[in-house]
Write a structure and sequence with these properties.
Number of helices: 8
Number of domains: 1
Shape: globular
Structural class: mainly alpha
Helix content: over 70%
Radius of gyration: 15 Å
CATH architecture: Orthogonal Bundle
Order of helices and strands: HHHHHHHH
Length: 146
Amino acid sequence: MSIARTNARKAAVQALYQWQMTGQNLSEIERQFFEEERLKDAQKSYFTELFHGVPKNLEAIDQALSEFVDRPVDMIDPVERAILRIGVYELLHRLDMPYRVVLNESINLAKYFGADGSHKYINGILDKIAQQKRAVEAKSKVKGER
């Protein structure tokens, strides 16, 4: 896994958090991130894909989340919500990325940004979504590990 892509995810969490909290224009937030050189060590194209892909697909992402979370999506801690939304986006739209990579990256984001123990919450939800949305991949991994 590339450090540049991991850093793109970290920046996307921050940008999505800002968007969720302020409702600011996506292009304005993105411009700030580029101008302030907050993407210096990040894969800029992946940051842009995540940052624009999550809002563009928000209805489908939040629908997938709502099946497995214990409260309305809007009531989830905003940092955890941003991480979950990125994870679901990757599970639904980046089929080239193994689901275990998505889960691992999301867990690491939660450990980096989230409250104590939030990585367990993130892992539990994304794992259930992966079992549903990537059932064939998930089942083949389990069989291969015997």
